[in-house]
Amino acid sequence: MTSTLRPPPPAPPRPPAAAPSPAPRSPRRRRSWRQALRRDWQLYSLAILPLLFFLVFRYLPMLGNIIAFRRFKPGGSIFGEYWVGLRYFRMFFTDPTFWEVFTNTLVLGTLTLLFCFPLPIVLALLLNEVRARRFKRFVQSVSYLPHFLSIVIVAAMVMQLTSIDGTANQLVRIVGGDPVAFLQQAEWFRTIYVSSEVWQTVGWGTILYLAALTTIDEDLYEAARIDGASRLRQTWHVTLPGIRPTMVTLLILNIGSFMAVGFEKILLLYNPLTYPTADVISTYLFRMGFQSSNFSYAAAIGLFEAVIGLILVLSANLISRRTVGTSLW
Fold this sequence. Notes:
Elements lengths: L32 H7 L1 H5 L2 H12 L10 E2 L10 E2 L3 H7 L2 H21 L1 H12 L3 H12 L6 H12 L4 H8 L11 H28 L4 H9 L4 H12 L1 H13 L6 H7 L5 H4 L2 H11 L3 H29 L6
């Protein structure tokens, strides 16, 4: 008889070896500010000049706000002669001229924000759709150029274009109309000012939005195309949410400068004939402080304007954080 050899039973699998437990990490010691300063002193030294600039030109002048509560006389103490309390605040609260310039400031600030904030977004979205690189660069260069022009040059160009013999009146004559002295009529000043602001700032404002557009993931556009979304739908559901943090940040900054309507340009363009619509708080302060030598009264109005601007910034930041989820702080 032949015996049948059976293979030996397989050996039971060995249990996996336990992974070695990681060595306990030593608690990481936090470096003090002196150690960080000693290590990276070259980087911190680059911040000295900007800090000095803000200290000298931003924070030290705040000490001058004390003359809003004190009687200041030219040639006397820089902090005023004696305490008058809220006298100058009551003066401009009861001054009808102040409320006229305050209304002009609100109107010009609203018009500037209404036109100069959304138009850079529209231009950036249009440039983002351009595929011809040379044409895109040409449009960018042409739109950026007005930002680098001096306010004096811009004001001179506006005066030449709107003069009696300027380009605007030449077009009026072509269509059979009579020439108009645009800068001598109060009803035209706001249109001229806002138009010049749009021409000068819109192109430069697209830089941040174009940079933000490059950070949007292309896979989101691909997914939207697969779902059948058109270009308009892709812009609404992908592009705009992608640049929303940049939009909110710039909106808060623009609201912060809402009351500080362009002082230099208005000062160069306006005249007594256009005061009813052109005179704003900053130009009124200039006349009260330097032409009338009423520095305490001007300081009180300037402090009031600064407080309004601070309230606007804090309110815009709070509303943005609670509604959109994006804020400066």
